[in-house]
Amino acid sequence: MTVQGPVVPRRRIAHELRRLREESGHTLEEVAAELMISTSKLSRLENAQGNPRPRDVRDLIRLYGVEGTGVAEKLHHWTKAAQRDVWWSHRDISKQLSTRLAYESEATTVRIYTIPMVPVLLQTADYSRAFYLANEPSLTARQIDEYVDIRQHRQKALRGRETMPPLEFIAVMHESALYQIVGSNAVMRDQLSQLIERSTAPNIDLRVLPFSAPPLFTNSCTYGYYEFDEPLDHDVVGIENHAGMQHLEDPQTVKRYRGYHDNLHRHSLNQDETRQLIRAVLAERYS
Fold it and tell me: Which Gene3D superfamilies match (predicted)?
């Protein structure tokens, strides 16, 4: 079953439930037997893979003897948050994309590297549509409209969110994306013009990794780094390729990817130079 709700509250619940069980000295099997639930269900809860039900969380709180404590209050709050309806809940999308949207919607900062395309959160609708038409020939017109609408909806996080500040977006885009024609010259002209305009927003840092940059590690792989403010919410890396989407959570691996992205950012043109290059390409190729 695909769980399409918020990911961060489930991760917090999983962390606390695992900590409480380990501190109690009980095994998964012992706790599951006590509560008359399956071991696999408890394991899913402790790995943020299941949708936590209020009754299960209540029973675990009682079993671990933390009723009335701050920990219990947090667990109840997170359980309620995990049930919250999200805008993509009723969309026909994959589990991987659902997870990606959840991380993106709850992160404070997203660091992206793309090749050879414009970052999704800065794509025009026509650019996205042309990209799907070229890369997903099996999709129906209705499906493409749905996917384009999802991409446009995701961009709202850059303008504002109900309970959080606008998403801070740090994007490095390979220079090849400026020359890779998606759709037509008209589509590219509109896309590059919007990049210039939107990159001036205070929460958007758009930079181009030029052809003159050295062949840095990860510069041939599109990925995102999702950053969270709370220490409990460890950062996550999302890699995207032809095999699909993969999310990495191992702390050491995630730490390395932060260094990889910082290196890409360091070797990129600064923001003013990036806009100057986009203007030059726009005038030379798409005017």
Answer: lambda repressor-like DNA-binding domains (1.10.260.40)
Q: Compute the distance between CA of residue 148 and CA of residue 123 in angstroms, rounded to an integer.
A: 10
Q: Which residues pair with 247 in a beta bridge?
A: 238
Q: How far is CA 245 from CA 143, 198, 203, 240, in A?
A: 19, 27, 26, 5
CA-based radius of gyration for the chain: 22
Per cent of the chain over pLDDT 90 is 74
Strand partners, 206: 171
* Intra-chain end-to-end CA distance of the chain, in Å: 49
Instruction: Yes or no: say if 226 and 104 are a contact pair by the CB < 8 Å rule.
Output: yes
Domain boundary among 22, 53, 82: 82
Check whether residue 72 and residue 107 sit in a common domain.
no
8 Å CB contact between 156 and 257? no
Question: End of a domain among 59, 82, 105?
Answer: 82
Q: pLDDT tens across 233-253, in order?
A: 889 999 988 878 899 999 999
Do 82 and 6 touch, CB atoms closer than 8 A?
A: yes
Residue pair 175/208 in contact by the 8 Å Cβ criterion: yes
Per the rule left: phi > 0, alpha: psi between -120 and 50, beta: everything else, 68 is left
Give the span between the Cα atoms of 286 and 40, in whole angstroms: 56
- Residue carrying the six token digits 């950012």: 265
CA 260, CA 211: separation in Å to the nearest integer? 18
Cβ-contact 82, 12 below 8 angstroms:
no
Considering the domain architecture, whether residues 30 and 167 belong to the same structural domain is answered as: no
